[in-house]
Structure formats: structure tokens, C-alpha cells
Design a protein that fits this description.
The protein has 384 residues and is α/β, with parallel strands linked by helices. 28% of the residues lie in helices and 16% in strands. α2 (37-43) links the parallel β1 (20-25) and β2 (47-53). The longest helix is centred in the C-terminal third of the chain and has 15 residues, at 313-327.
Length: 384
């Protein structure tokens, strides 16, 4: 299997030959041996004139809750300028000044596979800036790290935001290149877009089956296990529970000082969502970026996948929400504005508050999911 960078160098180098190239990437922009795109392009004789980095910076070491002092760095290995497009709150498009010495933009970023992750919207923003300067955009595609399953609710148009600019499912099952194609069409960006596909990938292949090196896309998504839970557990960012930020298992566990793990686990095991195991844990968040329960011992629930093929993190999250509200009706609380933005509308929160069963809530998603699968079809590049 070859990621987009290798396909570009082998088959499509004419797209950037004799052009000054701006490269949008981070620590995930590597070939099958783990070598940086930046170095591979330079070694191939490509004239890279600028580098642009999204959230977390070029090396993935910047915590967005601690914004960088400057939005410009220098790559120590090449001496090239690195423009940080994220200010700790939102991604800003590259300016005309930043693009003055660029003839084409090449983008290589590893998406996380969930609607809440900022890279698809960020790529759309960058494509719009390139289109405004009449620069072609070449996206070097990568596998969806959690495969092609489509799960969860579909965002409504009212809650479109800088994070999710178009209506997609919580777990969308698409690659960054496919999402770029969708964004270019739906948002009317007018970009001259070229997507260089992954050679040998099918939607049924999860990242363990690719043979490619796993590079965490974020400081808070350090493992493939955390990525599988992220489409569900990210919803808890909009509650008064910790999602494990500042612990050794971010997005693999949730917790709060008031959780009765015995009662919660008993209810979860009766519900028995498939493909996942629940265990009681304690952890102490150290300087968590979300500020929840810093340096406080919390009790919580750890999730471990037992069968990825049948696991639905979005439905599992609904079971967790309904159980926690039932067991702790006074302590559990939503942060409505944040939760609704993540959930794609107020419907999920309101259903949980009404006391609806998790299975009933999830069954209400089926029609929207079917429409989304059909709507996205023209933008797909890979077989099942």
C-alpha cells in the first residue's frame, strides 16, 4: 500500500514540476517508511518554498490551549519558513503574502475519521485561499484510520461551524481527499483540486491492515484505540465529564469525582452495546487542556474495543449518556452550546433529557445516515 506522497512522486510529479510548492502538513505527512514528505519532495528536486502547519504545528507538539507565541517558525532541517495557520482557537487561511512565492499548494494531513476533527474544515479553508490566488491544490490522500464505517447522527445545517462546515455523519467513513472533493463542491470553493489517491486501500481495511506507520494525528489522540472511541467520546467534551485529557488514555475513558462506577457499570452491562468492554478506572488529569478536574482524582469508565467490525462508538456514547443521566440525575450536566455543536443539533441532548432509551435515539438516525451515504457517493474514490 502506498500513501499519496509516494503515488505523487511515482506517477504524478508533472502536477508540481517546475512550480514553487507550498506544503501543508504536520508530523503525519510521511511515506511508508516514515520519511517526511518535505524531505522526499526536496530529494526529488521539487522546489518547496514554504511550509504551512495546521492545529498542533508542524511536529504535532503544540497544545491548542497554549497558543504559539508566533505564527511563524523555521524548519530546522531545511531552513524553510513554517507558517502556523492555527492560533489556538481557529485555523486561519494562508494570506496572499504567505502565498506570494507559491505556485501550487500540496496538502498532506492525516484525518481522524470523525466529524469533530478540524482537518477537513481546515483543508476546505486552505483550498478557498488557494482558489482566491488561482493556485492549484493537490491533496495527498491517506487511509481513514478507522476504516469506512458510517455511523452516528448527521449534522443539521443550523449547527454548521468552523469545525464542521458541511453536513456529515459523526463517523463519516471518508478520507481527507474525499472530504476535500465534497467540500469543494458543496461549499462552492472553485478550487482546482487534484486528489492523489492511496494505492491499494479499500474502505474495509482499517489502519492495522495497511502496513503504514501510525503517527498520532493529535496530542490527545495518541493511539489507534483512542481514534476508534473518538467519534463517540468526543461528545463528552460538551458535558461536565472529563474525556481523559491530561491522562495516559485520552478519549479511551471518561470520568468525574462523583461517578459511582459500580452502578454505572451494572447498567452498561445490561445494555450490552456490542464490540466494546467497560471497566472501572480512576485517573488524575494533569494540566488538562479542557480544565476539567485538574489534579483531581476522578472515578470513571474505561472503554476497550473487543470487535472493531461491530463496534459503534456513537451508539455506545448514547448508552453512556443515558446511563449517566439515570444514575446521576443531579450531578450529570450538559454544556448545551458546546454539546449541540458537537452533536450536530439539539436533538440528541433533548432526547437524553427526556429520558428516551439509547436504542430509540439511535434508531432515529437511520434515515439521515442513508441519505448521507447516497449524497456522498459522487465524491468517493475507494471501493468497499
Amino acid at each position: 500500500m502506498r500513501p499519496g506522497i509516494e503515488v505523487l512522486l511515482a506517477d504524478s510529479l508533472a502536477l508540481i514540476r517546475n512550480r514553487r510548492v507550498g506544503l501543508v502538513t504536520n508530523q503525519s505527512g510521511v511515506d511508508a517508511r516514515g520519511e517526511r514528505d518535505l524531505d522526499r519532495l526536496i530529494d526529488a528536486g521539487v522546489r518547496v518554498t514554504a511550509v504551512f502547519a495546521p492545529e498542533h504545528g508542524l511536529r504535532g507538539a503544540i497544545d491548542v490551549d497554549q497558543p504559539p507565541e508566533s505564527r511563524q517558525e523555521t524548519d530546522s532541517a531545511t531552513g524553510l519558513p513554517v507558517y502556523l495557520l492555527h492560533d489556538g482557537v481557529r485555523l486561519h487561511p494562508p494570506t496572499a503574502e504567505m502565498l506570494a512565492n507559491v505556485d501550487a499548494l500540496v496538502i498532506d494531513l492525516q484525518d481522524a475519521g470523525a466529524r469533530y476533527y478540524t482537518y477537513p474544515a481546515g483543508v476546505a479553508t486552505i483550498m478557498g485561499a488557494a482558489a482566491a490566488q488561482r493556485l492549484p491544490t493537490i491533496v495527498l490522500d491517506r487511509p481513514n484510520p478507522i476504516g469506512g464505517a458510517v455511523q452516528g447522527d448527521v449534522q443539521d445545517s443550523v449547527t454548521a461551524s468552523a469545525i464542521a462546515r458541511f453536513p456529515i455523519a459523526m463517523r463519516h467513513g471518508m478520507t481527507i481527499g474525499e472530504l476535500a472533493r465534497l467540500a469543494n463542491s458543496v461549499l462552492g470553493l472553485g478550487a482546482e483540486l487534484h486528489v492523489i489517491p492511496v494505492a491499494g486501500w479499500r474502505r474495509s481495511i482499517d489502519f492495522d491492515g495497511t502496513g503504514l506507520p501510525f503517527v498520532p494525528p493529535s496530542l490527545n489522540l495518541p493511539t489507534l484505540e483512542s481514534l476508534y472511541h473518538y467519534p463517540g467520546l468526543c461528545l463528552f467534551e460538551g458535558t461536565n465529564l472529563s474525556v481523559g485529557r491530561g491522562s495516559d488514555a485520552a478519549f479511551e475513558q471518561i470520568g468525574a469525582p462523583w461517578i459511582d462506577t459500580v452502578a454505572v457499570l451494572a447498567a452498561l452491562r445490561r445494555a450490552a452495546p456490542p464490540g466494546v468492554k467497560f471497566t472501572g478506572v480512576t485517573f488524575r488529569p494533569r494540566t488538562p487542556g479542557d480544565g476539567k478536574y485538574a489534579d483531581t482524582l476522578v472515578t470513571g469508565i474505561r472503554l476497550t474495543t473487543t470487535d472493531r467490525g461491530i463496534y459503534d462508538p456513537t451508539v455506545t456514547a448514547v448508552h453512556l449518556l443515558t446511563v449517566l443521566r439515570a444514575v446521576h440525575p443531579q450531578a450529570f450536566a450538559f454544556r448545551p452550546a458546546q454539546f449541540d455543536r458537537l452533536a450536530g443539533g439539539p436533538g440528541l441532548r433533548e432526547a437524553v433529557e427526556r429520558g428516551e432509551a439509547a436504542a430509540t435515539i439511535a434508531s432515529g438516525w437511520s434515515k439521515a445516515l442513508a441519505r448521507f451515504k447516497e449524497w456522498r457517493r459522487p465524491f468517493l474514490l475507494y471501493a468497499e
